[in-house]
Each structure stands twice: as structure tokens, then as C-alpha cells.
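Async update (no meeting this week)

Hi team, since we skipped the sync, here's where things stand on the single-chain job. The sequence we agreed to prioritize is pasted below, unchanged from the tracker. I ran it this morning and attached the output directly underneath so nobody has to dig for it. Comments welcome in thread, and please keep replies under the output.
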Amino acid sequence: MTHTRAVATFSRAWKLLRSFRFEQTQPHVFYSGLAHDTALLIDALCHDFALSLSGARVLDVGGGPGYFAAEFESRGARYVGVEPDAGEMSAAGIAVSQAVRGDGTALPFRDDTFDVVYSSNVAEHIPNPWTMADEMLRVARPGGLVVLSYTAWLGPFGGHETGWWQHYIGGDFARRRYEKTHGHPPKNVFGTSLFDLSVREGLEYARGKELLAAFPRYHPAWAWWIVRVPLLREFLTSNLVLVLKKPAHHEGGRA
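Output:
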């Protein structure tokens, strides 16, 4: 994974870490940077696994308001975003030529349609993320890449905007404390739009599938070993990336 490791530098990790504080107050700053980083990561993974983004059919599951489209299109990809919330799709006022309203757990596409299927920071917001992962594999073409990236609950960002430590006491505690402090509920409500997804669950899902790589997304490459250490990985992996390859004859369902 020469290209992907070259992207995973300390300076890149530090830049992303600093941008997280703008997620609520200046979302365009945070999401524009995240979109650029996501396209860079997917491009590097494609290079490492003998694919090319140029001309590739790319599906973004949970594409949101369109920040990611321009980044992929600038690399020659044929980008399609799918998002269940019409309000979220239009929130940033960005026009996306190929945007579809749909559910990630029941994707409105035929089998074997896309060269690359990815989802960035969506799985922790739905109660059945592995159904979504199965759907991502279904619509990927044989030999195509499926990249699933999600925030781990016990990592420092597991509570999202509710705080750095409050979610360690409990999701409900973090939500109540946020409401008391800010006078309104958080955007991500534990048990409704935020769930306690672990690193272990992702690795267990990938077992028996063609897993090409699993690493902590926002860490420098020299820290990727963290994912191999049980328990420690839950607290130090802020975001897990699973890179899967669609086999020639895929059978749906969780292994």
C-alpha cells in the first residue's frame, strides 16, 4: 500500500484534527477539507490495488450536501451520491448532477454497477450498518473496491459534538449534558442518529470477506499497528477504514 501510506502523514493527521472544531460552526470548512482528504485516500487506494479513478463509476453512500462531488469529478471519476435526507442534500446549496435520494441499507441500484463504492462517517449514524455494507458490496462490480470508514465509539470522537469524554460515561449522559449546556439537543442523538459502533465489529464483519486493508484513517501510517491490538484499538482508533474487494462471485449477507 505504497500510495496510501504516502498520504498518511503526521501533517495530514494534524490538519484534519484541527479542522474537527469547525464541524458545527463552519461546516463548509470541515467538510470541504474532509472531501478533499477522502478523494485523496480513495485515489491512493485505487493506485495500490490496480484501479484508476479516471473514468471509474464511484458511489458515495451518504454523500450529504455535495462537498465530495467536485473532488471526485476533478479526478475524472463519474460520481454518484446517494443520501436519504432531502434537507441534507440541499443544505449547502451545492448542485450535484448525479445525486439520488435513497437508503444506504436498500441501495436503488442494480448489482455490479460501480467500480468503487465508499461511505465516509455514515455507519455510526445508523442502527444497521452491516446491512449497508452488504448493499455496498452488492452494487460494486466484481473486482471493485468497497471502502467503509466510520467513527469508533470508544475513540476520542465517538461522542461527536457532545464532547471528548462525556460519551465514556454513556451516550445518554452525553446527550443530557449537551442539552443542559447548550439549551438544545445535539445534532447527533445517541440511540437515534448516533450508535456505539466498535472497531471489533468492523473487523468481525470483514472476516471471511476479501479484506485488503484495515487501518485508522486519521493516523500517520507508522501508527497503523494500533488496529492489530485488541482493546487498545477501541480507544486509539478514532476512525476505522475497511477496504474490501468484491469477489468474482459475491454472495450477499453477513459472514
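Quick observations from my side:
The beta strands are 57-61, 78-83, 99-101, 114-120, 140-151, 211-216, 239-245.
The chain has a mean pLDDT of 88.
Reply here if anything looks off.
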